[in-house]
Amino acid sequence: MSLIVQKFGGSSVRDAQRVMNVARRVTKTYAKGNSVVVVVSAQGDTTDDLIEKAREINPKANKREMDVLLSSGEQISIALLAMAIEGLGYPAKSLTGWQAGFVTDSSHGNSRIRRVETERIENELDKGNIVIVAGFQGLNRYDDITTLGRGGSDTSAVAIAAACRADLCQIFTDVEGVYTADPRLVPEARKLAEISYDEMLELATLGAQVLHNRSVEMAKKYNVPLEVLSSLVEKPGTVIKEVAKMEKMLIKGVARDNHVTRISLIGLEDVPGIAFRIFSALAARKINIDIILQSVGRDNTKDISFTVSDSQREDAVAVVEELKQTLRAKNIACDGVTKLSVVGAGMESNPGVAAMMFEALSEAGVNIQMIATSEIKISVLIDREESDRALRAVHSAFVAG
């Protein structure tokens, strides 16, 4: 008998018909003799609706109360799914994140899992129940409800799979697997049979929305067998594992992120310690920095630019405004951009990938503003208005045909 963890996202349980569809998929797995733990997200746009309700009441509501509010969405989903499974004649037990043993740190709104105390889950499995767990949530050491950040249900599922030593963790979505690009934006995108943890982690971090990057990071750390597949169509999905076949592909995917803010400090003194003062202050406010570019010094001054997610834009701008006078910056510029990236382990041993990408963008009339590279990725910043055209052009250069 195998232990299988299955996760279903908000679109998979958005209405009664889809909840019943999930119930049938889950019970089909259970009927084959497997033990099953199911992790579900809030239905459809529930989380967004709750955020909007909070803004109507208090636009600056504290994060603890936001966690109390947002965690309610998943509780609706687990109860409804348990009812659906019982209606099909199978035993089910729903558990909130804290009932399932999720212990987190106290960073409200974006908590990290400290551990999963699996005793309750294992007891319910021993009784023959299908266990349904609310994703995205846990409890800190003060017994306060916490949430794991958007997309955190993926991380919840992988954490349970790791803690319970599951044989497989399946992430069900509204697409049939991991594609070379978002198939809704690039119709000729191809589904991958498999992809490595490292490649998937890069794609998830760079804007591919099929998996939460922290879930992939955890799957790699604990070697959790992972599969992404459709909740609507019963077809094989994409397997994510340590080493994937190259499939004769130079790159595995093209990702874009339209939610990037670039902040530039212009005319800084060209002296030691400036970068440290800027980025230590940002780190103290728990602001995640992505691409950093420092210009060559001129006339005893230099410019430093960096990117953050749009969600941290206000906090980051506040930090650099506080530093502006002490750093004697002449100006601060802030604008929204798109980060476009290509990812693939194949580029390590193949020179010319950057040239191919830049040629495709040049032919599409897209200007590159900043560039960042690693062993298996190349990212560029471009105007948001050009993101769709750039995505299709780069995908065509590497993947089409």
Provide a quick synopsis of the model.
With 401 residues, the chain is an alpha/beta fold. Helix content is 35%, strand content 26%. The strands form four sheets. The chain has an eight-stranded mixed beta sheet, sandwiched between helices. Strands 14-15-13-16-18-17 form a six-stranded antiparallel beta sheet. It has a two-stranded antiparallel sheet with strand order 4-5.
Explain how this protein is built.
This protein is of the alpha/beta class and 401 residues long. It has helices at residues 16-31, 46-57, 63-87, 119-126, 152-163, 197-205, 213-222, 274-284, 313-327, 353-363, 387-398, and strands spanning 3-8, 35-40, 92-95, 102-104, 113-116, 130-134, 137-139, 145-147, 168-173, 194-196, 226-230, 238-241, 253-269, 292-294, 301-309, 331-343, 370-374, 377-382. It has an eight-stranded mixed beta sheet, sandwiched between helices. A hairpin with an 8-residue loop joins strand 4 (102-104) and strand 5. Helix 5 runs parallel beside helix 7 (213-222) and helix 6 packs antiparallel against helix 7 (213-222). The longest helix is centred in the first third of the chain and has 25 residues, at 63-87. The chain is globular, with a radius of gyration of 23 Å. The protein starts with a strand and ends with a helix. The model has no long low-confidence stretch (mean pLDDT 92).
